[in-house]
Amino acid sequence: MIELRSDTFTTPTADMLAAMASATQGDDVYGEDPTVRELEELAAHTLGKDAGCLMPSGTMANLACLMAHAPRGTKVLVGRESDIYIYEAGGASVCGGLVYEPIDNQPDGTLRIADLVEGCPKDPEDPQFALPAVVCVENTQNRCGGRILSAEHLADVRAFADDRGLRLHLDGARLFNAAAGSGRTPAEIAAPADSVQFCLSKGLSAPIGSMVVGDRELVAKARRIRKMLGGGMRQAGFIAAAGIVAIKTADRLVEDHANARRLAIGLADIPGVEIDPEVVETNICMFRVTAPGWTLPAFFAAAREHGLALAELGHGRARAVTHRGVGARDIDDAVDIVAKVLASGKGVA
C-alpha cells in the first residue's frame, strides 16, 4: 500500500529503534529520566526557548498551553480551519472552560489582523463579553494545504497580541516542515510565540510524542496540567530517545517536500483532477476529483483497491501527505493509479 493519508503513518527508523533499546530510564514524573531531560533541553535549545516538556500527544500539548495561558471564561482566538478548533475534541472548552472564537483563515493559512480585531470586544469593560486571552496560529497550516506562515505575518500577529495584552501560541505540529520549506530555522519561526507545540510523530517519524516549549514559568504550568490530564509518564526515556533522533535528522524533510511537488505536478496532468502545484509548499497536496460521476468515497475505495491510500480533509477535497515511508517511485506509481482509476469510468453512476 502506498500510504498517503497522513505523515502520522511513519514508523521509527533503525537509528531510532537502536536509541530506544539503549536509552537510560528514570521516573519522568519525578523529573528523573535523563533521556527525557535531554530531549526537553534539545527541543528548547533548537527552538530558542528556555524550557521544554514532553507530552504524549499534540492535542494534549496544545490544550496544556491554552490552559496555562488563559483563565476560565476567557476566549481563544483560533483559525476556523485550525486543528485546535476542528480536530481536538473541544478540549479547551471541556477541560479549560475556555471559549473558542473562530477566525476565518485566508487561503494561505493566515489570519487577517482586521478579523482578529473583530474577535475582540469593542468595550473590554462591558461584562457581557468574554475577554480574549490567547491567539493561536498554526504553522504549517494543515487544512489550507500545508502552507507556511511568513515571518512578516507572524510579526504582525505578535504585534496585535502585544497591543491587546494577549499571549501567542504556535501550533507547530509540522514546524520543522515550515523550517525546511522556508529556509528559516526552527528558532526563527518560534521566536514570536510565547508557547510552541511541535509533533515528533508526524514527518519527524518518532513513534509517540509532542513537545511544549516556552519560558520556564509557562512550561512549569504545562507540566502540572499534563499531570492533571493524565499525561504524566514514568520510564519515558524509550519515547524520548526516538524524539532526540527525530529532531537531529529533521533536515531530511526536504525530500518529502520534493516528493509532494512531484506528486502535485503529476496529478495536474490527469484529466478529472484539479490541483495547483504552485501552492504546494511542504508535504501536503490538496486536490479535487472533478471527473464526472465520481464521489470522493468511491474514488478513495477504487484507489485503495489499486494500492493507494488517500483521505478527505473537508470541503470536498482529497489530501495526500508525503513522508519518510514514501519514495519518488511510490509517487510515480500513485500518479499512475489515480490516472488509471479515473480513466476507468467506474465511478460514473
Automatic annotation (TrEMBL):
Keyword Lyase included in the entry's annotation: yes
InterPro entries in the record: ArAA_b-elim_lyase/Thr_aldolase (IPR001597), Low_specificity_L-TA-like (IPR023603), PyrdxlP-dep_Trfase (IPR015424), PyrdxlP-dep_Trfase_major (IPR015421), PyrdxlP-dep_Trfase_small (IPR015422)
Domain of life: Bacteria
Gene Ontology MF, one: L-allo-threonine aldolase activity
Gene: ltaA
Keywords: Lyase, Pyridoxal phosphate
Entry cofactors: pyridoxal 5'-phosphate
Organism of origin: Actinokineospora globicatena
Any Pfam family matching the protein: Beta_elim_lyase
Modified residues (N6-(pyridoxal phosphate)lysine): 202
Official protein name in the record: Threonine aldolase
GO cellular component: a single term: cytosol
One GO BP annotation of this record: L-threonine catabolic process
Residues of the Aromatic amino acid beta-eliminating lyase/threonine aldolase domain: 3-288
Similarity annotation: Belongs to the threonine aldolase family.
